[in-house]
């Protein structure tokens, strides 16, 4: 994928409420304006990279882009699992992410436990890949140095500030 690494940021919105409740794996969701501006060569599937809430610490992340076949979504979404335990929700705060690599395409699962197992496997793969020097350097990218407040027409779409 030519567009990787891909940098984007936007406010965290309320999603379907399934990450924490159904899966035990909380996710932060981007608004449609961010999803709709993904480059054409970023296909649906599972990605890994780095994430930052507001001007906080930078953490490893995995992200699902697509329609979540298990749940049969009708709208494409970007759901980010930040590999960190936060004390509270961060709705409406700015999430900055750099998508570094691709793990796998979306899959349909017949059982919830299969989906949960796959997500845990994706998380472990992301942890390992993000230790590679070429991926670690992106954690230090200037993109994360300053978080800027955004409005819907100022959301960064793959461009460095």
Automatic annotation (TrEMBL):
<dbReference type="Pfam" id="PF01687">
    <property type="entry name" value="Flavokinase"/>
</dbReference>
<dbReference type="GO" id="GO:0046872">
    <property type="term" value="F:metal ion binding"/>
</dbReference>
<comment type="pathway">
    <text>Cofactor biosynthesis; FMN biosynthesis; FMN from riboflavin (ATP route): step 1/1.</text>
</comment>
<keyword id="KW-0862">Zinc</keyword>
<dbReference type="GO" id="GO:0008531">
    <property type="term" value="F:riboflavin kinase activity"/>
</dbReference>
<keyword id="KW-0479">Metal-binding</keyword>
<keyword id="KW-0288">FMN</keyword>
<keyword id="KW-0067">ATP-binding</keyword>
<dbReference type="GO" id="GO:0009231">
    <property type="term" value="P:riboflavin biosynthetic process"/>
</dbReference>
<keyword id="KW-0418">Kinase</keyword>
<protein>
    <recommendedName>
        <fullName>Riboflavin kinase</fullName>
        <ecNumber>2.7.1.26</ecNumber>
    </recommendedName>
</protein>
<dbReference type="GO" id="GO:0005739">
    <property type="term" value="C:mitochondrion"/>
</dbReference>
<comment type="function">
    <text>Catalyzes the phosphorylation of riboflavin (vitamin B2) to form flavin-mononucleotide (FMN), hence rate-limiting enzyme in the synthesis of FAD. Essential for TNF-induced reactive oxygen species (ROS) production. Through its interaction with both TNFRSF1A and CYBA, physically and functionally couples TNFRSF1A to NADPH oxidase. TNF-activation of RFK may enhance the incorporation of FAD in NADPH oxidase, a critical step for the assembly and activation of NADPH oxidase.</text>
</comment>
<dbReference type="InterPro" id="IPR015865">
    <property type="entry name" value="Riboflavin_kinase_bac/euk"/>
</dbReference>
<dbReference type="InterPro" id="IPR023468">
    <property type="entry name" value="Riboflavin_kinase"/>
</dbReference>
<keyword id="KW-0808">Transferase</keyword>
<feature type="domain" description="Riboflavin kinase">
    <location>
        <begin position="1"/>
        <end position="131"/>
    </location>
</feature>
<dbReference type="InterPro" id="IPR023465">
    <property type="entry name" value="Riboflavin_kinase_dom_sf"/>
</dbReference>
<keyword id="KW-0285">Flavoprotein</keyword>
<dbReference type="GO" id="GO:0009398">
    <property type="term" value="P:FMN biosynthetic process"/>
</dbReference>
<keyword id="KW-0547">Nucleotide-binding</keyword>
<dbReference type="GO" id="GO:0005524">
    <property type="term" value="F:ATP binding"/>
</dbReference>
